[in-house]
Every structure is written in structure tokens, then in C-alpha cells.
Amino acid sequence: MGKSYERIEGRLRAFIEAQRIFFTATAPLDGDGTVNLSPKGLTGSFAVLDELTLAYLDFAGSNAETIAHLRENGRITLMWCAFEGPPNIVRVHGRGEPVFRDDPRWDGLMRHFPDIDVTVHGLRAIIVVRAEKIRDTCGYAVPFMTYEEDRPLHASRFAREDDESLDAYFHKKEHVATSIDGLPGLPLPLPPLPPSA
């Protein structure tokens, strides 16, 4: 039923890039810590950089668990499900890191996301993942669901924020600078978006 892959290419890459939603899973090293599972969407916010490297944009929200876990230990799993067409589930297990706005790699990474207007989504980091294990499974129990469109709510909520007000928003949230389990999350103050963004 399941198959392992050495790299992300061909039909596997096409499948991943065609999905409208994916999920990320991370956890702290502490066995009693909170496991985090997050859905990710927004057309154009995910990219395959090469056959072993993926990246996605991390937008404003009221928590920063993924960032905190990656800063602590780097472990992450990404998962895609086929909600249309033949059944399939793909998981990429690997190591990730958050690249923040003041990182010299920022501009180069942002070139992989040409269709995203970052000024309307409160972009706070780019998550870069290096694949260590790539597997698929059948997905026979995943239901059929049809994509209609991206929700406009995230953009309409954060389009009214500038760098200063976004930083103030993050400071007010209990689990942005610090995770639910007390790990360092998003570094604040938030650096301004680079001029090219």
C-alpha cells in the first residue's frame, strides 16, 4: 500500500503542488508538551524549492507553536490528502526552520511566492523544510471534497495592519512570543518587511 520516495519529483511533486490544503505537525521535546497540528492553505503560499526542500509562508495568527517547536528541535511532518481524484496521502517527515523577516535569505526565498501580496496577510516567517523521509499511503478513507475558493477573511483582517500595529497585535497575544508550553516563539519586536517584499 505505502511507498517510500528518495526525492520529491514527477507525479509526486505534481500531486503535492496541486493540493489546496496541507497539514503541519510539530511537538516539543518534552513528552508532556503540546503536540501541534495546523491546516495550511491560501493559494500560492507553498512552494517546492528543490527535490528535497519545501517552504511555506507563515502568516499572522494568535499562536506560534510551529515556530516555537522548530526553534527548539526542528522536527516537522507535512501531510497532503487527495480530496479529489485517486485516493492518496503523502507525508514528508523532516527538519524545518523559521526564516524571519530580518534573515539575509528572506528575499531569495520570497521569489518562490510571486502570487502572494505579503502586505495583506501579516507575513511573519517563511518555514523551510528539508525532507528526510517521504512516504505515501492509500488514503482510501479520505472523503471526496470540492474546493470552492480561498476564504477572504485572513486578508481582510490583516490588510489593515502595518508593521507597527502587527507587532502590537503579536505582543498582545499570549502564545506568539512564547508557546503554550513556554518555549520561545516568534522573536519580537517584529522586524519590518524588507522593501522588496
Automatic annotation (TrEMBL):
<protein>
    <submittedName>
        <fullName>Pyridoxamine 5'-phosphate oxidase family protein</fullName>
    </submittedName>
</protein>
<dbReference type="InterPro" id="IPR011576">
    <property type="entry name" value="Pyridox_Oxase_N"/>
</dbReference>
<feature type="domain" description="Pyridoxamine 5'-phosphate oxidase N-terminal">
    <location>
        <begin position="10"/>
        <end position="138"/>
    </location>
</feature>
<dbReference type="InterPro" id="IPR012349">
    <property type="entry name" value="Split_barrel_FMN-bd"/>
</dbReference>
<dbReference type="Pfam" id="PF01243">
    <property type="entry name" value="PNPOx_N"/>
</dbReference>
